[in-house]
Amino acid sequence: MHKVFALLRKRPVVFILAGIALYLLSNHVDELRNFQGATAAVYIVAIASIVLLTGYSGQISLGHGAIMAVGGYAAVLSQKYWHFNLLLTFVAAVLAAAVFGAILGFAAARLSGPYLAGTTLALAVGLPSLADQFHILGGEQGLPYNVPQPPASLGADFTQYHWFFWITGSAALLMVWATQNILGSRYGRQWRAMRSNPTTAALAGIHVGRSKVLAFTLSSGIAGLAGALFVLTLNLVTPSAFPLSLSFTIVTGAVLAGVGSLRGSIIGAVVLVAIPELSDSLATKLGGAERVSANLPGLITAVLLILTVLFFPEGPLRRRVKKIK
Amino acid sequence: MIRLISTLLIGLSSGAIYALMALALVLVWRSTRVVNFAQAGQAILSTYIGYEVIVHVNNYWLALPIAALAGAVIGALVDAILIRRLSQSTGPSAGIRPVIATLGLLGLISSIVGLIWGNDLKRIPTPVGTHGYTFGHTTIPFSPYNLLIVASAAIVMLLFAIVFQRTNLGLALRASAFAPETARLAGVRVDRTRTIGWAFAGAAGAIAGVMITPQNALSPNSMDLLLVLGFVAAVIGGLDSLIGAGLGGIVLGLGLALILEYVSTSLAFPAAFIVLILVLLVRPQGLLGKLRSRDA
Amino acid sequence: MLGKQWRKRSLIASTTIAVGALVASALPAQAADPGISPTTIKLGITLPLTGAASPGYNKIPAAMQAYFNYINDNGGVNGRKVQLVVKDDSYVPTLAVAKTNDLILKDKVFATVGQLGTANNEAIASSVNLGRRGIPSLFINTGFSGFANSAKYPTTYPILASYVMEAKIMAQYIKENFAGKKVFLIYQDDDFGTDALAGFKAGGLTFDATNSVGYASGSQSAATGASWVGKAKAYGADVTIMFGVSSATGPALGAAYQLGFKTQWILGSVGGDATTLKAIGVPTAVMYGAIGLSSLPSPADATDPYVAQFQTINTKYNAGATFDNNVLVAMNTAMLTVEALRAAGANPTRAGLMAAIASKGSTWANAGLAPLNYGASSHVGFNGYWFGTYGPTGTMLPAGGKYVVYTTDSGAGAVVKSTYVRPAMPAKGLPNN
Questions:
Q1: Contact assessment for residue C64 and residue C84, using Cβ atoms and an 8 Å cutoff
Q2: Residues of B with CB below 8 A from C257's CB?
Q3: Of A114, A298, A325, the CB nearest to B110
Q4: Within the 13-52 window of chain A, which residues sit less than 8 Å (CB to CB) from chain B?
Q5: Considering only A232-246, B185-199, B248-262, C19-33, which range has the smallest mean pLDDT?
Q6: pLDDT tens, A95-123?
Q7: Which of B18, B181, B269, B288 would you mutate first to test chain A, the one with the most A CBs within 10 A?
């Protein structure tokens, strides 16, 4: 059974099956679930980028929200000024973000741990507000992102969010399949070697610096796609759509699911969508004074997060790591 | 000339606040190798406690040490309950798990503060005058209050630097962070020592909070931006050095003030990134950080 | 090994079940207009209750609910009780979209009311696409002029006078009272500010880098405030306009005090709420003499029948929360909402609600001293302001005790002194339209 799983892992078969399952699912749920599904798809791609960067190559980024912003703006601008169709805007987003990531990777290659965290944090805070500076980027009001309406052949009942789910879902599946292949390749192995022991890796002939930059570039490209999909669900790109909390949310989702596990990214994404929903419902049921209903969802989310981090160190898919006393 | 001096003075005062927050973050880093995002939460909670003191007794000078004490207690509790469990992490998420845990803690504390005190603005009155000093016809943007901030930051920093470098406790703190097993063998109670480090950090953060609040209102999230800037300041100064935290704060404060004054006021956020990247390009370990290799 | 596999599979299984439960728990769509039942009308609102942008605004929902409860205790709207579902969006557009989707698809509200924030309303309009779905978004809490475009936002009804109007009116007031003086402007560097600059220009006041400074939204602090004010002082401004949010006005006034900078302050409507400024720590001595503006009467003006009535409702239904401008605006919006619902008839529909606003909205009784301008193709709410001065205790009162209202449009129209007389308040503040 194990061998069958291993064989299926890299084959597109699993993804095709998943695609069909999601297609069927989307036809039977209401619009809200389709919207949440689209949001989850965005998160899956974003978390996948963190899995590659942090789980595999061991570099921390607290600024992937800013990289998503680069992708999002690239998608919108390429549509506005070059009249790209939807698919090409996605390509533009990936490329722009990857280039940005390469530059960032070069600058970051010499930085370790908290220094890298601090730099990416400053980036997350500083980059989106640049859009207010250059009015070609639309300012606070943002720029619209025109998503074509669903084709008439699908019927008048076919909702906009259903269509979003199809687009984001397919893009997410494709990207996760591609990422899986990258992670399973020799680059993936190089990153893991580099992460656990850079000295030995270097001795084994791995060019650590180049490997790090490659990881940043690829991770950013993936995040760029997440940014484009994100902007698609909003039909709009604006700097305040990429607050610092977005970067934190993505990293949180990655950790919740086990930062080294690509499969976990799916669980992480679902959890990121489910937790606010559940805590919102819970808060409404408990009701009470306004200060309660305002702060309760945040409280529940935070508690769940802390508990998960404490008791599921590598995410729910891995065995609990035994503590060495 | 006056413009330059004014700008530098503004930068000095705000830099002092960043320095205090950076100090708290570096204290935690040096004793536990954890970046503590919950520092803002601990500081805010301590500040609200100081606010309560002022509401009941109306004495700022009493509120300050009480808040610092509260900060120390909260810091110690956070370490004992949460961080100790995380210190034994291994695996690919070892570096990032404490970050997420402290982020979660920040959210937790902010929500609890909101539940207890509500989300509307509270204020703490300033203990000394806020009118700038006047020399003849010119008034500079530096008031007794700004002087208080700078002086407090300097005193706190020197105090902690002395403790870390000149006392046995300081030695134990540094040893517990850098080589816990060896420290244990040498008889150091590592866990307890680390808790003391967290207590110190909590006190520093509380002082930062009570110092900055009179000029900005108090609400559950009012210190979030300070956390980011404090972290950037800590990185600029080099996370290994307490004096570095102070230096980093001043550099960031001055850098921001100069960019805002001479380049553009709307560049406030990118400016922090610019100052940071300029420093790190030249010295990737921060201004006073030590360039030594350690495991990821 | 076996345990690990079992664990993995059980986790995948439970996740699948969880997703399945989420899916299955979604309710099927209803045929009639949602949010209307024989006994209730459900409305929704999204705004920042927590987070950096929340202070001041987070008092709005309780104040609105207080007015609605007052109405409910007095017969409701055509026999139905009004319910307000409140969602916190922490001022983040993606959350605003998600929460609005929750309101529409999960809570099934009839309409949204008072949604706050320029970028947030933009995102809601483009993603949730209220216009295409025919969902009314009443009396949104933003002054951005773009939302009055009824072709682009067919179901959105602003209520606040736009920032363009506000700036034009300020320019006129300055022309009348401070001709020839040096004027400096501090503004927020986003659409809030762009609207303002356009308005000032239309009013004859051009601002550039020499006599103005734009700050990045969110960057306001004591340090940045000092740098803006430093520039104003260096310019030698006789009049300084502060067109920003409260959390920026506070540091600006504080810095002025620190620098000993004496100027005539004109505070924009968004950042001029005295109670909020006092809470931030601006000494009333600094605010004393500053000029402010508003479309509604001063919240301290107990001689105004609307204010007095709202204060009574506030004491009884809002647990005696401090009655400030936020509470006044919130209750006034609630009153207009009730009037709109009444006008929609015994069996309200969304289309009917909007038709009622178009045909009769400008006639409804409310505290506004400037007229409402809703019409067949006009989604413009208030279009005017009166000017007042902050007194020693921080309350803003009109010069000579008399409200003189200026009105204009968001385009090139002139600024005129209005002769509008607002409708008398219905007895006990209970709408009778």
A1: yes
A2: 130-131
A3: A298
A4: none
A5: C19-33
A6: 999 999 999 998 888 887 788 888 898 89
A7: B269
Crossing angle, helix A264-286 and helix A290-311, to 10 degrees? Answer: 150
Which spans in B118-241 are helix H?
A: 144-166, 168-178, 180-185, 190-212, 224-237
Task: Give the Å distances, CA to CA, from A144 to A72, A84, A137, A174, C195.
Answer: 11, 14, 11, 26, 19
What are the C-alpha distances in Å from A191 to residues A175, A198, A232?
A: 19, 9, 32
- State the angle between helix axes of B168-178 and B144-166 in degrees (0 to 180), rounded to the nearest 10: 80
Task: Fill in the DSSP letter of residue B20.
Answer: H
- Angstrom distance (rounded) from CA C422 to CA C366: 8
The answer to pTM > 0.90 is no
Length of chain C: 433
Tell me the average pLDDT of chain B: 86
CA distance C23 to B61: 57
Task: Give me the DSSP letters along A155-205.
Answer: -TT--HHHHHHHHHHHHHHHHHHHHHHHHHSHHHHHHHHHHH-HHHHHHTT
Strand partners, B124: none
Out of B220, B267, B296, closest to residue A113 by CB: B296
Q: Is C55 on the interface with A (CB under 8 A)?
A: no
d(CA C345, CA C340): 9
Q: Do C61 and A31 touch (CB under 8 A)?
A: no
Q: What is the pLDDT of residue A7?
A: 46
> How far is it, in rounded angstroms, from Cα B101 to Cα B86?
9
| B100 closest CB neighbour out of A110, A305, A321 | A305
C265, C174 Cβ separation under 8 angstroms: no
Give the gap in angstroms from C-alpha B285 to the nearest C-alpha of chain C.
27
Q: How far apart are the first and last CA of chain B?
A: 47
Question: Between B and C, how many residue pairs show a Cβ–Cβ distance under 8 A?
Answer: 127
Q: Class assignment of domain B2-293?
A: mainly alpha
Residues from chain C contacting residue A274 (CB–CB below 8 Å)? 18, 22
| Residue C45 Ramachandran class (φ > 0 left, ψ -120 to 50 alpha, else beta) | beta
Structure tokens at C424: 């008398």
The residues, ordered by sequence, that sit 6+ positions from A66 with a Cβ below 8 Å of its Cβ are: A120, A123, A124, A126, A127, A128, A242, A247
Q: How many angstroms separate the CA atoms of A102 and A219, rounded?
A: 10
CA dist B43 and B223 (Å) reads 8
Residue owning tokens 């400074």: C213
The pLDDT of residue C8: 54
Closest CA–CA distance from residue B157 to any residue of chain A (Å): 21
Q: How far apart are CA B53 and CA C131, in angstroms?
A: 52
Report residue B11 as tokens. 């930068």
This complex has an ipTM of 0.83
Q: Which residues of C367-386 are buried (b: 16+ CB within 10 A; e: fewer)?
A: bbbbbbbbeeebbbbbbbbb
Q: Per-residue DSSP letters for C273-323?
A: -HHHHHHHT--HHHHTT-EEEESS--TT-TTSHHHHHHHHHHHHHSTT---
Q: How far is B30 from chain C (nearest CA, A)?
A: 29
Amino acid letter for position A225? L
Strands C396-398 and C384-390: antiparallel
Residue A107, Cβ neighbours under 10 Å: how many? 18
Q: Reduced to 3 states, what is the DSSP secondary structure of residue B18?
A: helix
- A55 — contact with chain B (CB < 8 Å)? yes
Q: Output DSSP code: residue C141.
A: B
